[in-house]
Design goal:
Radius of gyration: 21 Å
Structural class: mainly alpha
Number of helices: 20
Shape: globular
Strand order of the largest sheet: 1-2-5
Strand content: under 5%
Largest sheet: 3 strands, mixed
Number of strands: 5
Amino acid sequence: MLWKIHPYQNATSSLIGIWEGFAEINPNIAEPGDVIYKDGGYDGQFFYYLAKSMFADLEWDVIVDSYYFRLHRIGFTLLVGLPASIIGFSNYATIGLSISLFLFLTSVLCLYQLLPKEHRYLTVFYLFSPYSLNSHLLLVADGVFTSLFIITIFLLEKQYHLIVILLVATLTVFTRELGIILLIPIVISKFSLKDYKFAVLYLFPILLFISFLIWTRSFIPNHLGTNPLGFGDMIDYPLFGFVKSFFDNGIFHLSPKESTKLLLFLQASLLIAFFSNSFLNKSISIKDIFSNSKNTGILLLPILASLSILLIAEQGYWRSFDNLSRMFTLSVPLVILLKSRVNSKLLDYFLYLSLILFFFLVLRILFITQIKDFYISP
């Protein structure tokens, strides 16, 4: 982290990724001393804008890229915005990074406890996950979502008090809607066992999130965003986005920087091969996925969901390591848990590639990433 913020007067606000275009249309958002980039920011700025608008008594006129898309992933905004409103938003980046790393290390310990003793060494692959690390440094929600997901699985496996489980599960769902996938196999399993009381209770976070979606859609904001996106805008035909990412103005290109994209595609291919082989050998069935049979549903369904999203992602995701890597954040710890139950070389290779990409990320931060033009907010 110190190396990443050093070129920007060692200001942790440089991690937020504020672009001057958004700083100009949100003139009351940036704190004095915030680093503002003249050319390009990143998604962490939108969590920051929403947090300040919620907790700093500003008029609700914030402008982001896509209002509803950002608002519906409100968990990270709440986690960081609340303490920042008390300590001061000038410390937002430090608070966000501290919370992210605390939850990450907690989830590492949870994963360690979930694994059988002979497989606990696999925790190293999660500890050095390039995807979680990159997410934390970008101050986006994917790393925190993954941490909360693993903590929720731990609470379920260790049979903690139901209220604690539901609170963490609800926060997981509100941090990223993919958290719903965690609860679906549990709800189906409870219904199949005619345990209707617990089925409804585990359904509560999903119903609460759906109610939140309906409520936010019931009023029109002052501004829908500079680039309001629907689900259809972010998808393409399977692998069309991957192929299109190699073309600019109809001209094919293959440069050294594409190597990481190819490694990520190889990781996705390994997961596809694993599931294809498992279905053909009948070692995994549809029942295992959707009913949490053999306690694998909460591992299999999220991986399949993440893989499906990746395959239909539009070319913009495939062109950026920061965007693309976020598709794999959740898969690493779930593959580790799956590996402890299934002996598969394909899962081994997936984890080895993850470790290779960790070293690439370090090299990228230290030597490859270009320093951006910036100024300090007055």
